[in-house]
Every structure is written in structure tokens, then in C-alpha cells.
Fold this sequence. Notes:
Elements: H1 2-15, H2 21-47, E1 49-53, E2 60-62, H3 69-76, E3 87-91, E4 94-98, H4 100-104, E5 116-119
Parallel strand pairs: 1-5
Antiparallel strand pairs: 1-2, 3-4, 3-5
Helix pairs in contact: 1-2
Amino acid sequence: MKFFVAILLLSLAATGCVETKSKARAQAQAAFLAGENAALLKQQQQASSVTIIGPVQNPRVPWVEGLTLAQAIATANYLDSRAPKEIIITRQGEDASIDPNVLLRGTVVPLEAGDIITLR
């Protein structure tokens, strides 16, 4: 981000559009804050979804209250003709391995916003 601000300052100074140093600083600060806000928005959007890694058509599934593992896989549109051999849920950096047969038996596995599901 600092590189972007430096480029912005150099380009503004080279074009002669900046009248004073204080105006240049204000413009650089505004550009920096806009970049920070965009990054925070992206993080928030990722936190309000579940990511599915594996043979799926839609790897990002919006998280809603009560979302289950089976619902997330169905929403992601699983593409492989064979069932996965292993399902791993990563939550806050910790992995939990789940036997796919658990889902076939109807066990409900609740998900949380930001979970990452790996289908192997």
C-alpha cells in the first residue's frame, strides 16, 4: 500500500496538479484510507462466507445463520462423480477431519462464518 501512495505522490507532483505539500499529503492520506477501507471490506466479505476447496462450481458460499456442511457443499455445487474421501473443516487455523459417511447418515455439522472446507 505504501508503494501505491508513493506512486500517487510522484504522479501528482510530476503533473503539477498539486499546489502545496499539505494538499499533496491530504490527497495521499485520502488515497491510503480508501485502500484501507477496501481491504477491510474484502476481509468482512470473506468472513461472512464459507470457502469450499475442491471440485465445486461455486467456491464461496454466503454464510447464513444455521448453515450446515451438507448445505454448503450442495450450494457450492459439488462436481465430482465420486464422493469425497475426506472432508476437512478449517476454523480459525485449526483443522477438523470429518468422515463423509457422517453426512450420508444425516448428521448435521454446523458451520461458522469464515470456515474453509476442503474436499479430498
